[in-house]
Every structure is written in structure tokens, then in C-alpha cells.
Write a sequence for this structure.
């Protein structure tokens, strides 16, 4: 993670999240894969793996660098 921290005016983190599509498991087995997509901050690189619906951040402007 970068030394840069995303802090808002109130001192709470103010990240600029982007969606990262990722899959785990064994694609050679029927039903052997699982979606393990996550969010990554465009500024500091922090990852958030516990968001209930990370795909709501998909395909925002800047996701295609």
C-alpha cells in the first residue's frame, strides 16, 4: 500500500474505489470457481474485500487506463 492516505475533511477515509474483477478456485471443475472480486482505491491502493456488492463500482470513468 502506498504511504498516501485518503483522508476526508472529517478525518475519515475518503477513498476513490474501483472494481477489480477476480475469480478463484479450479475452472476445470464444474462449479469449481467463485467470484472474489473486490474494490481497490485508485489513490492509495487500499483493497476492500468485504463489500456486499463491489460490482456497483464497475465501469466508472477511469476504469480503462
Amino acid at each position: 500500500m502506498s504511504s498516501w492516505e485518503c483522508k476526508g475533511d472529517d478525518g475519515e477515509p475518503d477513498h476513490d474505489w474501483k472494481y477489480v474483477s477476480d475469480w478463484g478456485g479450479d475452472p476445470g471443475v464444474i462449479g469449481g470457481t467463485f467470484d472474489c472480486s473486490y474494490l481497490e482505491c485508485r489513490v492509495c491502493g487500499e483493497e476492500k474485500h468485504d463489500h456486499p456488492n463491489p460490482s456497483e463500482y464497475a465501469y466508472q470513468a477511469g476504469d480503462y487506463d
The mean pLDDT is 79. The chain has one domain: 1-65.
